[in-house]
Design goal:
Length: 317
């Protein structure tokens, strides 16, 4: 089964935002949300360039958020190094950088709300038990639902899971069109607070986008599979759904997504223009006639030349 199903029926993705004559269109607000697990590599530079160019071209705002919720995976100094790299490449973000590691109180509050609604429940299963009883899904094993109706007697709560509906969830992506996923069969009830006590990325990202008023999400296509989970959470929290654009992934010569943890292809802060032009070309954008002298000149030119219709969704594969 393909991981996400294309649908020609765009009405399945829900109503298009009704921006007409009587309503005021909300200002574009995008973000770049790296996980500080290592220095910025070329793949994350592509995501940063795509989201920043899209925000600049729309005359919008652009925020930076450090997704350091999984503190075990974060490397000391990586967040500062990423910010230095962004600065060296001429990115300018609005306001303070938000750190997920400082938002635990807020995540806890939302978790309590979801538990009180009955939308989430404690799960006592170990990873091994889930692997033994679950079936393969689009991203790992689908939880078999053991603790869905209550913890079996004698079991202690470990993680907190979110109940998913038995329905096809569809959304619209600006590059990929209408995509659908059967959350229950393909993903299953998913973890929002892990057994080690850390909040899961899926919860943090939705709460942060909501609290920061982010209405445009431009990020790597590896997160297409997570989007239906995030939309389900948005619905439970009565959060507005952002517009999505998932960019092609940069892969290594073995076809794997570049990872910060592998220290793959770090970006050179002393030659920002080369990195920016390479990312621009990867995104299918024609290069300027004259190479720009500085990152600032590049961005002055880029803001009026960005055309997302030129992105090849299969560029990295
Ligand atoms: N923190 C994620 C990453 O570095 C990005 C999450 C997002 O943009 O929603 O891959």
């Amino acid at each position: 089964m393909p991981p996400l199903h294309h649908s020609d029926d765009s009405s399945k993705a829900g109503p298009a935002p009704a921006f007409c004559c009587m309503t005021i269109e909300p200002r574009y607000r995008g973000r770049f949300a790296p996980s500080p697990t290592g220095p910025l590599h070329f793949g994350s530079l592509v995501a940063a360039v795509g989201s920043y160019a899209d925000a600049l071209a729309a005359g919008g705002e652009w925020l930076v958020r450090m997704e350091d919720v999984d503190e075990d995976r974060c490397r000391p100094g990586a967040a500062d190094a990423i910010l230095r790299t962004l600065e060296a490449h001429g990115f300018q973000w609005q306001g303070e950088v938000l750190y997920q590691s400082r938002r635990k109180e807020r995540y806890r509050e939302v978790l309590e709300e979801l538990l009180a609604q009955g939308a989430a429940y404690p799960c006592g299963c170990t990873r091994r038990e889930v692997e033994r009883h679950g079936h393969p899904g689009v991203e790992g094993i689908v939880y078999p639902g053991t603790c869905r109706e209550g913890l079996p007697s004698g079991r202690k709560p470990r993680a907190i899971r979110l109940r998913v509906p038995d329905e096809e969830l569809c959304f619209h992506d600006r590059l990929h069109g209408t995509l659908c996923q059967q959350l229950k069969q393909e993903v299953g009830d998913f973890v929002i607070r892990r057994a080690d006590g850390f909040f899961a990325y899926q919860l943090a990202v939705v709460v942060d986008d909501l609290d920061q008023g982010v209405n445009q999400v431009v990020r790597g296509a590896d997160l297409l599979l997570s989007t239906p989970r995030q939309i389900h959470l948005q619905r439970l929290l009565a959060a507005p759904r952002p517009t999505y654009l998932h960019l092609p992934l940069v892969r290594d010569d073995k076809g794997r997504k570049l990872s910060k943890r592998d220290q793959a292809h770090p970006v050179n802060d002393t030659d920002p223009v080369s990195g920016l032009l390479a990312a621009w070309r990867f995104l299918g954008q024609p290069l300027p006639e004259e190479p720009p002298a500085t990152a600032e000149t590049f961005w002055r030119w880029a803001r009026s030349h960005w055309d997302p219709a030129r992105i090849n969704p299969d560029a990295g594969s």
